[in-house]
Task: inverse folding
């Protein structure tokens, strides 16, 4: 009798282990699903927190907004206040904007812009901005808008 009980218990244990290795949808184990090739699932794609891609900007909920509110929705950390950065200049540490690495402008210019024609938006930390824009960056982080070449 104890042999039958042990065999039954092992069968139940084996069945529960086999069902536990499948993904929640009842398909193949998760390791097999990720090794089949093709595009990674949207939940598995790595998103760079300092870059907004054209595909993100083309989302209907985003493209209908001005660029300031679109960026606040997609990457609110782009606008986080960083405080003074060792300079007493007015506006030091405030986020600046550049179109295609051109002259720096106030972040308020984003309110009058839309996402049409923009292929990428990059966030440069204050040290990266200082390397790219020199003293003009004034110790501030910079949002760089990269436009399509056939604009």
Result:
């Amino acid at each position: 009798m104890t042999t039958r009980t042990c065999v039954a218990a092992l069968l139940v244990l084996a069945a529960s282990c086999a069902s536990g290795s499948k993904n929640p949808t009842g398909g193949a184990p998760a390791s097999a699903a990720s090794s089949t090739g093709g595009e990674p699932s949207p939940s598995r794609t790595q998103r760079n927190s300092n870059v907004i891609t054209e595909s993100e900007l083309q989302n209907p909920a985003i493209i209908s907004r001005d660029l300031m509110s679109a960026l606040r929705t997609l990457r609110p950390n782009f606008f986080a206040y960083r405080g003074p950065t060792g300079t007493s200049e007015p506006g030091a540490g405030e986020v600046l904007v550049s179109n295609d690495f051109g002259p720096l402008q106030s972040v308020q210019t984003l309110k009058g812009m839309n996402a049409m024609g923009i292929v990428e938006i990059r966030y440069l930390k204050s040290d990266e901005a200082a390397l790219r824009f020199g003293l003009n960056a004034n110790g501030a982080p910079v949002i760089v808008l990269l436009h399509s070449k056939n604009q």
Observations:
- Residues 21-35 have pLDDT under 50 and may be disordered.
- The beta strands are 51-53, 96-99, 104-106, 118-124, 142-147.
